[in-house]
Amino acid sequence: MTIRLGPNRYGKAECRLVTVVRDGPRHELTDLNVSTRLAGRLDATHLTGDNADVLPTDTQKNTVYAFARDGFAGIEEFGLRLARHFVTGPIDRAQVHVEAYGWRRLGGHTFARAGDEVRSATLTATAGQAWAVGGLHGLTLLNTTGSMFKGFPRDQYTTLPEADDRILATAVDARWRFATLDVDWNAAFAAIREGLVGAFTDTYSRSLQQTLYAMGERVLERVPEVAEVRLALPNRHHFLVDLSPFGLDNPDAVYVAADRPYGLIEGTVLRDDAPLPGLAWDLGAA
Ligand SMILES: O=c1[nH]c(=O)c2[nH]c(=O)[nH]c2[nH]1
């Protein structure tokens, strides 16, 4: 029997980091969660415990804080700078994942945490190349009309009535791959978010699948730097309550907001001429 070391990587997970830019009375706040992952020639530490090639995860954490000292032009730029820094010597691949929690401004120096919405960025570097993936998670959207679901096959297990007008709700989980690193990151994020929300709002939806495609398509139409959009949209079902036991009708007024189970609609929308993803999505095996 032969046993060998398979794919491996290591890093510091979830470095929580808040930055304040104090240019005048109007302060800027960022609230981040940064994770690092390094991979390369790391056989020795696993096989013999020789740590000569192991940059401590504690050092990685300190580097994250030090690199934040002078601010950054978007979390993508911050992650890219860090990922490139970590690629040296035996480390031939590095990935930095940054999550940014939203804060709503209440005043010059006062903020309120803004819901569950999270912006993310995953930056991957090798010695010669780098890739950027952005993301938006936990943005819950709901249309009270403009959505139907009908024409589906029926068999002996089908109970779902056809819906001409239903509530459509989802919590957007989107990631997109940039074709280039020459990007105005914050402007791109704003345009992408607007594209996702705009397409959800505007699309007369015959299925959440159709809405998913429209959302990805809108991003690709509006933001030329994006090559590919991956979406996972939970269908947050809202079922009409049967009020007939109480002698009442229900003119599309009262719904149960179901928790589980939920439909999960997933899909990728991409350009025909999208460059190959390389390590953008996955740091990969050695
Ligand atoms: O938009 C929808 N897509 C489905 O695939 C599906 N399946 C289901 O039960 N309801 C819905 N709604």
TrEMBL record:
<feature type="binding site">
    <location>
        <position position="235"/>
    </location>
    <ligand>
        <name>urate</name>
    </ligand>
</feature>
<comment type="pathway">
    <text>Purine metabolism; urate degradation; (S)-allantoin from urate: step 1/3.</text>
</comment>
<dbReference type="GO" id="GO:0004846">
    <property type="term" value="F:urate oxidase activity"/>
</dbReference>
<feature type="binding site">
    <location>
        <position position="235"/>
    </location>
    <ligand>
        <name>5-hydroxyisourate</name>
    </ligand>
</feature>
<keyword id="KW-0560">Oxidoreductase</keyword>
<protein>
    <recommendedName>
        <fullName>Uricase</fullName>
        <ecNumber>1.7.3.3</ecNumber>
    </recommendedName>
</protein>
<feature type="binding site">
    <location>
        <position position="57"/>
    </location>
    <ligand>
        <name>O2</name>
    </ligand>
</feature>
<feature type="binding site">
    <location>
        <position position="149"/>
    </location>
    <ligand>
        <name>5-hydroxyisourate</name>
    </ligand>
</feature>
<comment type="function">
    <text>Catalyzes the oxidation of uric acid to 5-hydroxyisourate, which is further processed to form (S)-allantoin.</text>
</comment>
<feature type="binding site">
    <location>
        <position position="58"/>
    </location>
    <ligand>
        <name>urate</name>
    </ligand>
</feature>
<feature type="binding site">
    <location>
        <position position="149"/>
    </location>
    <ligand>
        <name>urate</name>
    </ligand>
</feature>
<comment type="similarity">
    <text>Belongs to the uricase family.</text>
</comment>
<dbReference type="GO" id="GO:0019628">
    <property type="term" value="P:urate catabolic process"/>
</dbReference>
<feature type="binding site">
    <location>
        <position position="57"/>
    </location>
    <ligand>
        <name>5-hydroxyisourate</name>
    </ligand>
</feature>
<feature type="active site" description="Charge relay system">
    <location>
        <position position="57"/>
    </location>
</feature>
<feature type="binding site">
    <location>
        <position position="166"/>
    </location>
    <ligand>
        <name>urate</name>
    </ligand>
</feature>
<keyword id="KW-0659">Purine metabolism</keyword>
<feature type="active site" description="Charge relay system">
    <location>
        <position position="12"/>
    </location>
</feature>
<feature type="binding site">
    <location>
        <position position="235"/>
    </location>
    <ligand>
        <name>O2</name>
    </ligand>
</feature>
<dbReference type="InterPro" id="IPR002042">
    <property type="entry name" value="Uricase"/>
</dbReference>
<feature type="binding site">
    <location>
        <position position="209"/>
    </location>
    <ligand>
        <name>urate</name>
    </ligand>
</feature>
<feature type="binding site">
    <location>
        <position position="57"/>
    </location>
    <ligand>
        <name>urate</name>
    </ligand>
</feature>
<dbReference type="GO" id="GO:0006144">
    <property type="term" value="P:purine nucleobase metabolic process"/>
</dbReference>
<feature type="active site" description="Charge relay system">
    <location>
        <position position="237"/>
    </location>
</feature>
<feature type="binding site">
    <location>
        <position position="166"/>
    </location>
    <ligand>
        <name>5-hydroxyisourate</name>
    </ligand>
</feature>
<feature type="binding site">
    <location>
        <position position="209"/>
    </location>
    <ligand>
        <name>5-hydroxyisourate</name>
    </ligand>
</feature>
<dbReference type="Pfam" id="PF01014">
    <property type="entry name" value="Uricase"/>
</dbReference>
